[in-house]
Design brief:
This protein is mainly α. Helices cover 56% and strands 3% of the residues. A 3-stranded antiparallel β-sheet has the order 1-3-2. The chain has a two-stranded antiparallel ribbon with strand order 4-5.
Length: 469
């Protein structure tokens, strides 16, 4: 494998249709740090609905009330009562009904930006961090917020400071909804004493420790989780009944309800936090962002993504040291990654996940005819819909999760379908350009022996060179 091929395929998403392979691979990667556009036109024109999270919750409650009432009326043989949704203006009801459409549209934007980008390595990093801070669309309430999280938090901070990304992602409305933080109320808070119901939820605190910062063996206890959950009480979403009049809108679209916050000083992993209101959780997140366990956890995940499922200890130690030295500067971490010799070994080290394989296929073929629903359907067929992993841990990053026989059959079927709809002339010559000094003799022979150009293209799309990086 040549350095050019590694720069294109291991760090990025492969050569874009019509482009040429880089003559200076390292400079090609470093240049992307300066040219990456965190807010391209398609995102700039998109409406940010972060502050409208509570409205969706109210509408969903109205819809659920409708369903319950309709069932009861039918059982009792009574005529159906007017819909609770009719209490809301038509444009609001329309927005409620288009939540899934919004998610599909945003998923299409995400895919298109990766396919067309001239900074594919940074796009890969965006998707890496988005998966790190998973807020799954499996929960319907997140569907019109999840694009906001990636576009408004991950992209602007992908080369910034980890502490900023952590605070904005962990306290984003999408995350507050996904992990049920929005309804967590301190046991000794004024609101808890007043309403006498609903308690404190520890989901977000636990996942921040386990999945976003320290890692499962990071040195925290259950008592630390509970204390952190107390510090997080009050962080909620804007527009909720009962809480809205007590809350103040925060940067990023979340809200903070002082009346729901647990009063007092918190003690976590030996440190005391006497800050008031929203500042208490922010101070804890700042400390977690620069903790040595966080440096090791982040370094290990990054190394696994770029240097193999079982990355050498040397690259983990180098990334960990950089993270600690800079306080979590992600641009510095990326430069260290590019300079690491473990990422440049001349053999495949990773099996491409479905999303990255699909992006690479579209970049190679130049296919622009797929609409949003087709893209959504194809990713679902491949087993990796955007923003829909089965757990808060995000999609797994190892070969064992993606290289099963059924998964490979789905890629073959999709490769044949795509090959039928695009230009398949001169596949061998195009492959030699897209995979510089990386095409095996076996693949060359298979392409030459193909019965047609279309068959040659389909074979290339599921060749070892396209499946691995």
């Amino acid at each position: 494998m040549s350095a050019a091929h590694i720069a294109l395929s291991r760090f990025g998403y492969g050569l874009k249709h019509g482009n040429r392979a880089p003559s200076d691979p390292r400079r090609y990667l470093l240049r992307q740090l300066d040219t990456f556009d965190p807010k391209p036109a398609v995102i700039s024109a998109r409406k940010d609905t972060s502050a409208e999270a509570g409205l969706y919750m109210k509408l969903q409650q109205a819809a659920q009330k409708d369903q319950v009432m309709a069932k009861r009326m039918a059982e009792e043989g009574r005529p159906r009562e007017p819909s609770a949704l009719l209490e809301f203006p038509p444009e609001v009801r329309a927005a409620f009904q288009t939540a899934t459409k919004t998610m599909i549209r945003d998923g299409g934007y995400r895919l298109d930006m990766a396919v067309s980008s001239n900074a594919p390595m940074v796009e890969r990093l965006v998707h890496f961090w988005s998966n790190h801070f998973t807020a799954s669309s499996a929960k319907a309430q997140t569907r019109h917020q999840i694009g906001n999280l990636e576009f408004g938090v991950i992209r602007p901070n992908v080369l910034g400071r980890f502490s900023d990304m952590l605070k904005e992602a962990a306290l984003h409305p999408a995350m507050l909804i996904y992990l049920d933080q929005y309804q967590s109320i301190g046991p000794n808070s004024p609101l808890r004493k007043r309403i006498g119901r609903r308690g404190m939820n520890e989901n977000l605190a636990r996942e921040i420790f386990e999945l976003h910062t320290l890692g499962v063996d990071g040195g925290y206890s259950q008592a630390d989780v509970t204390e952190f959950a107390r510090a997080l009480t009050g962080w909620t979403i804007h527009g909720l009944p009962r809480l809205d009049r007590f809350s103040r809108l925060q940067p990023g679209g979340a809200a903070f309800a002082e009346a729901a916050h647990e009063p007092g000083t918190r003690q976590i992993m030996g440190r005391r936090y006497s800050q008031k209101g929203p500042q208490q959780a922010l101070a804890i997140l700042d400390d977690l962002a620069t903790h040595p366990s966080t440096a090791k956890f982040v370094a290990t995940k990054l190394a696994r993504h770029f240097a193999g499922d079982d990355p050498p200890a040397s690259i983990v130690a180098r990334l960990e040291a950089d993270f600690m030295r800079t306080g979590g500067n992600l641009e510095s971490l990326t430069r260290t990654l590019i300079d690491s010799p473990e990422c440049w070994v001349d053999r495949p080290v990773k099996f491409r996940q479905p999303f990255e394989w699909f992006v690479s296929v579209l970049r190679f073929t130049g296919d622009r005819k797929l609409n949003e629903r087709q893209k959504f359907s194809m990713l679902r067929q491949l087993g990796q819909s955007s923003w829909r992993p089965a757990s808060p841990a995000g999609y797994d990053d190892t070969e064992g999760s993606w290289a099963g026989p059924d998964a490979l059959v789905r890629r073959v079927e999709l490769a044949e379908r795509i090959a039928r709809g695009v230009n398949s002339d001169g596949v061998l010559a195009r492959a030699a350009t897209a995979f510089p000094d990386a095409l095996s003799e076996h693949t060359r022979l298979s392409l030459r022996r193909a019965e047609s150009d279309r068959q040659a293209l389909a074979l290339l799309l599921v060749s070892p060179e396209m499946l691995r990086r």
